[in-house]
């Protein structure tokens, strides 16, 4: 296998890695004094860095590879997930004030303060397992495709190399190393992807030619309810349920906003991140559609959808720019891996180890965090041959379907827990476990679908996004029902952690935590989202 990079590309790629190592070295030289330093970057990060980090954490190589592949194969329906930018606003305006008031390091810790230790243990173990099985493994698989295609080396050589490189600066530098390197990686990723979109449009003959070549259906986000893959009801409502879990309750994302000094900066970081979140439609999904058009025109070929973006790089970019885009693709891989490594080590250290050994010193906890990151790196490497077997299909769709089963009960517990003070600890743990059982039954049914009939066959084959809606309704009914039938929580203990328990002082602090510019920017973003939803109607 030959590399597609030439001498000038290698120089550009080398300069990118040198800049990345310089940023990581600068951060590492600023010693991590305690757990707040190591896991939350000293809680002193600005809004621009927070927003860039949210974007870079979200946009992994599974996005670049999978979203472009889905664009080529199915067109625009998956754009619904990218328009979840409004849910990032929900994080800043609804959830973040409660998280800050709890002074929690992690989402499981917040659940303990709002409910009890059982919910914390559930989410801690569930999150760690979920990260390794989905985020780490999927990111490494997608990264292996990118690196092998670009550098001309075997799939697992490149994957292991980049995992070890990313793991090294994450272990040593902690959250600071992750969050500041992600700021650089965001710039590189956006620049490279904008270039490939522009050149692709030129090659295909412009926007109108693109629409004419691929047909109106490829540009239609709103597929019928009966569509087997992307029914609009599932995309709009099921997608929102998954989005609230991912953007508002997942340690992987929320940890970035918790690194802010106060609610105002954290919220502004979320608003900036929400604006960046719209970009993937135009720099990943549209290039996938461009690749589909170029294939119809006979300009390029690809064997399976997940190869689309690397093939575009090979076909369209001149020497030098290939190196820049290669850097952007590797940035996507490393930023996602670094984020999940750091989130895993935070949850393990603060929610499991410290819970078992509360007297442990701050310095030792930092060392435990480094050890936990190393273990996750090793687990990620072990998963490489397993993920390699995924092979066919579109990675992004696979990831969304898995998330559609695990998100609903967690979304229900967090959302109801904040909106309704009457939700108690028993309702939270019953909801979480019952949701897990239903998710497990669905996955088992899906695997054995050929041997099922009747209701069980329907249960196994219902669209994944519709399944998210049904599971959320089920989880909400369980949570409300158990709360109503059991004793109310101690409202004094959960003061400030749910609506109806806020003091007058806390309400005043909330009012003082935003300016008119925050409101204007948020409303403007919602308007942009509505315009995009309206434009892509086929």
Would you report the number of β strands?
A: 0
Tell me the radius of gyration: 23 Å
| Main beta sheet strand tally, sense and closure | none
Q: How would the global form be characterised?
A: globular
Kindly report how far apart the N and C termini lie: 40 Å
Tally of DSSP helical segments: 23
Task: Give the CATH topology.
Answer: Sodium/glucose cotransporter
What is the CATH H-level superfamily?
Sodium/glucose cotransporter
Name given to the CATH architecture: Up-down Bundle
SSE diagram, text form:
Elements: H1 7-29, H2 35-40, H3 47-58, H4 61-74, H5 79-82, H6 85-102, H7 107-114, H8 117-151, H9 155-204, H10 207-214, H11 232-249, H12 251-258, H13 263-277, H14 279-296, H15 308-316, H16 321-356, H17 362-388, H18 395-419, H19 425-447, H20 454-461, H21 464-485, H22 504-511, H23 516-535
Key traits:
single chain; 538 residues; mainly alpha; Sodium/glucose cotransporter; 23 helices; globular
Q: What would your notes on this structure say?
A:
This protein is 77% helix and 0% strand. It has a single domain, classed as Sodium/glucose cotransporter. Helix 8 runs parallel beside helix 15 and helix 11 (232-249) packs across helix 12. The chain contains 23 helices and no strands. It is an all-alpha fold.
What can be said about this structure in brief?
This protein has 538 residues and is an all-alpha fold.
């Amino acid at each position: 296998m030959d590399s597609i990079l030439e001498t000038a590309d290698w120089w550009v790629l080398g300069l990118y890695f040198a800049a990345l190592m310089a940023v990581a070295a600068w951060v590492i030289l600023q010693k991590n004094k305690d757990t707040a330093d190591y896991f939350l970057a000293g809680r002193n990060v600005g809004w621009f860095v927070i927003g860039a980090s949210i974007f870079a954490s979200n946009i992994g190589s599974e996005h670049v590879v999978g979203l472009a592949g889905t664009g080529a194969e199915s067109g625009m329906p998956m754009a619904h997930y990218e328009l979840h930018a409004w849910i990032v606003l929900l994080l800043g305006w609804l959830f973040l004030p409660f998280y800050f008031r709890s002074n929690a390091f992690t989402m499981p810790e917040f659940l303990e303060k709002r409910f009890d230790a059982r919910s914390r243990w559930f989410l801690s173990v569930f999150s760690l397992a979920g990260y390794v099985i989905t985020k780490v493994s999927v990111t490494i698989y997608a990264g292996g495709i990118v690196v092998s295609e670009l550098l001309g080396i075997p799939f697992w050589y490149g994957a292991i190399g980049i995992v070890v490189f990313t793991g090294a600066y994450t272990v040593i530098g902690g959250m600071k190393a992750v969050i500041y390197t992600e700021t650089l990686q965001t710039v590189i990723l956006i620049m490279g992807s904008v270039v490939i979109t522009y050149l692709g449009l030129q090659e295909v003959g412009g926007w109108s030619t693109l629409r004419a070549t691929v047909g109106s259906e490829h540009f239609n986000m709103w597929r019928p309810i009966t569509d087997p893959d992307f029914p609009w009801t599932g995309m709009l409502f099921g997608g929102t349920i998954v989005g609230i879990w991912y953007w508002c309750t997942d340690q992987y994302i929320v940890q970035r906003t918790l690194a802010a000094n106060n609610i105002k900066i954290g919220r502004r970081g979320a608003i900036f991140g929400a604006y960046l979140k719209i970009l993937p439609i135009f720099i990943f999904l549209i290039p996938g559609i461009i690749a589909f058009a170029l294939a119809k025109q006979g300009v390029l070929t690809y064997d399976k959808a997940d190869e689309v973006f690397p093939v575009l790089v090979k076909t369209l970019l001149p020497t030098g720019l290939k190196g820049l885009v290669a850097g952007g693709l590797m940035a996507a891989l490393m930023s996602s891996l670094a984020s999940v490594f750091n989130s895993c080590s935070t949850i393990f250290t603060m929610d499991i180890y410290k819970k078992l050994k509360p007297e442990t010193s701050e310095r030792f906890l930092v060392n435990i965090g480094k050890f936990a990151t190393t273990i996750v790196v090793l687990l990620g490497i072990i998963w490489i041959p397993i993920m390699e077997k995924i092979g066919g299909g579109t990675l992004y769709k696979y990831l969304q379907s898995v998330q559609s089963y695990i998100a609903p009960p967690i979304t229900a517990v967090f959302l109801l827990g904040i909106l309704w003070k009457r939700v108690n600890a028993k309702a939270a743990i019953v909801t979480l476990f019952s949701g897990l059982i239903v998710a497990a039954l669905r996955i088992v049914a899906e695997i054995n679908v050929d041997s099922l009939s009747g209701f069980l066959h329907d249960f196994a084959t219902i669209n994944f996004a519709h399944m998210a809606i049904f599971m959320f309704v089920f989880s909400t009914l369980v949570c409300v029902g158990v709360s109503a039938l059991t004793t109310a929580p101690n409202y004094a203990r959960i003061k400030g952690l749910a609506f109806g328990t806020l003091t007058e002082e806390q309400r005043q602090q909330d009012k003082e935590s935003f300016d008119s510019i925050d409101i204007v920017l948020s409303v403007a973003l919602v308007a942009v989202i509505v315009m995009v939803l309206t434009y892509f109607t086929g």
